[in-house]
């Protein structure tokens, strides 16, 4: 759904931010509002969106490039390597494409970019370069572990160790699972994210991801191998829920290349000064700057329910800093 760019939203604290305080965009708001849920469905599933794009890509990959279920019945290097190559190429294409457009040719300059700064260089990052650091962790541990989880899940499905579903057998569940996967991923992400912010785990593992205060497309999937293990374990839901290979591929893309889309550092892709494709959110950008807040995403209520919501205001910043100081004594 297109929206005109409002230049009046720019301020001196950020290069850009939406209206503050942030509104409650959770689909689980209380009391429930049918009109809001309808608009959420329309915005996410009936217009061009990140989720719709990933469903289309997942379907094409399954029908034209993926190993068949018959092939995955027996664990062999050839089909596992095939999945790894697909994951690697998609990550390079999506994260690399976004980085090329926003940061190399500067396709929309800094319009709708949250942070004023460019990608960093220096001793903080491996290879003394933020982009190279992020690429390394994304393309090695990230793609490697994503491939392992996908391969195990496909092997389970092929051998009937986990339940199978198809559009012909149950069209309602087949379609509903696409809606459920992002909701489940958000729930899983919130709790493993809270766990990784325990000082012991944060210092050893999660701090690697948080080097990226100013995020870019390659930042989303850049994590310590231990964090990748926790994060990608979201795929294990398909071991117990009836799924189709397209669901598994969509879920994997949502976790991997999808993270590149939500960490672009820009709110939206502009075409002729109109917002055409939602990308990053200020909600999560606040987490990267202030750490102990907004562990989940704005469509889920967990941060509001458990007192970790940052609405972008100065008061919320002060409360978050006090909570951070208490946690990291």
Question: What is the compact description of this entry?
Answer:
The protein has 329 residues and is mainly α. Helices cover 51% and strands 3% of the residues.
Radius of gyration from the alpha-carbon trace, in angstroms: 20 Å
Approximately what portion of the residues adopt beta-strand conformation? under 5%
Uncertain segments are 1-10
What structural category characterises the helix and strand content?
mainly alpha
Please give the alpha-carbon distance between the first and last residues.
Answer: 46 Å
What's the overall geometry?
Answer: globular
How many DSSP helices? Answer: 12
The total tally of domains equals 1
Return the average pLDDT rounded to an integer.
92
Largest sheet at a glance? Answer: 2 strands, antiparallel
Strands of the widest sheet, in order across it, are 1-2
- Total DSSP E strands: 2
Roughly how much helix do the residues carry, as a percent range?
40-55%
The ordered H/E elements are: HHHHHHHHHEEHHH
Word description of this protein:
The chain has about 325 residues and is mainly alpha-helical. About 50% of the residues lie in helices and about 5% in strands. The protein contains 12 helices and 2 strands. The chain has a two-stranded antiparallel sheet. The termini are far apart.
Properties at a glance:
329 residues, mainly alpha, two-stranded antiparallel ribbon, 12 helices, disordered N terminus
Secondary structure layout:
Elements lengths: L33 H12 L4 H15 L12 H28 L25 H29 L12 H26 L2 H6 L20 H8 L12 H11 L1 H6 L5 E4 L2 E5 L3 H9 L11 H4 L8 H14 L2
Antiparallel strand pairs: 1-2
């Amino acid at each position: 759904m297109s929206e005109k760019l409002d230049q009046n939203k720019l301020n001196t604290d950020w290069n850009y931010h939406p209206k503050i305080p942030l509104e409650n965009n959770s689909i689980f708001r209380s009391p429930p509002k049918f009109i809001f849920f309808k608009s959420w469905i329309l915005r996410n599933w009936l217009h061009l969106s990140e989720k719709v794009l990933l469903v289309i890509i997942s379907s094409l990959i399954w029908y034209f490039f993926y190993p068949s279920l018959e092939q995955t019945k027996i664990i062999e290097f050839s089909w596992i390597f095939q999945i790894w190559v697909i994951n690697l190429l998609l990550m390079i294409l999506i994260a690399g494409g976004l980085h090329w457009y926003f940061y190399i040719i500067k396709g929309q300059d800094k319009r709708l970019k949250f942070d004023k700064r460019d990608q960093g260089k220096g001793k903080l990052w491996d290879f003394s370069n933020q982009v190279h650091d992020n690429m390394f962790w994304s393309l090695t541990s990230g793609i490697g572990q994503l491939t392992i989880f996908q391969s195990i899940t496909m092997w389970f499905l092929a051998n009937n160790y986990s339940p199978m579903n198809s559009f012909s057998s149950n069209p309602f569940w087949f379609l509903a699972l696409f809606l459920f996967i992002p909701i489940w991923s958000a729930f899983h992400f919130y709790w493993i994210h809270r766990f990784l912010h325990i000082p012991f785990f944060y210092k050893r593992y999660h701090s690697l991801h948080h080097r990226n205060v100013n995020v870019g497309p390659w930042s989303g999937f850049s994590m310590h191998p231990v964090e990748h293990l926790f994060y990608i374990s979201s795929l294990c839901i398909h071991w117990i829920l009836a799924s189709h290979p397209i669901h598994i591929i969509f879920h994997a893309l949502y976790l991997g290349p999808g993270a590149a889309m939500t960490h672009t550092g820009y709110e939206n892709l502009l075409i002729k000064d109109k917002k055409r494709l939602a990308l990053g959110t200020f909600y999560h950008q606040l987490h990267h700057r202030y750490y102990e807040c907004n562990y989940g995403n704005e469509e889920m209520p967990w941060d509001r329910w458990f007192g970790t919501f940052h609405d972008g205001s100065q008061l919320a910043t002060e409360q978050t800093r006090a909570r951070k100081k208490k946690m990291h004594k």
